Amino acid sequence: MAENIPNIGSVRGPSGAERIKRSINAQPNAGTSFQEILQRQQAQQGTELKFSVHAQNRLIERNIELSMDDRQRLQNGIEQILEKGGRESLIIMNNNAFLVSAENRTVITAIENDGLKGNVFTNIDSALVIS
């Protein structure tokens, strides 16, 4: 039976796992835990407020304009939500509603005042009213 097995020759050089290990050990932050690297990367990205493509489209379609002050207030609101352990939240500000992923610091969608009437919001764990 061994005669039917093709000869693939010997594998030269380090295995894939060995190459990865060598690469990691060659890095200047060798010995740094994955959690530390992740936290450093997240800190470098900052806590900047983001808008999903869907939210950007809704802002345009619904003529919702946000000043720099409004954006800062939303960002501060998300920080408050995170401090209380919220993840998926409804923020009401300037007679508009914003569904946000606090963990990702991302506005998921925006609803203008008229769209709020009779609307049921599900899958949220917190709400914040910003006056």
Summarize the entry for a quick read.
By secondary structure, the chain is an alpha/beta fold. Helices cover 40% and strands 19% of the residues. The chain contains five helices and five strands.
Helix and strand content put the structural class at alpha/beta
Count of extended strands: 5
The geometry reads as elongated
What are the secondary-structure elements, in order, as H or E?
HHEHHEEEHE
Main beta sheet: strand number and arrangement?
A: 5 strands, mixed
**What value does the Rg take, in angstroms?**
24 Å
Q: What is the terminal separation in angstroms?
A: 80 Å
Helix content: 25-40%
The domain tally reads 2
Determine the strand fraction and express it as a percent band: 15-25%
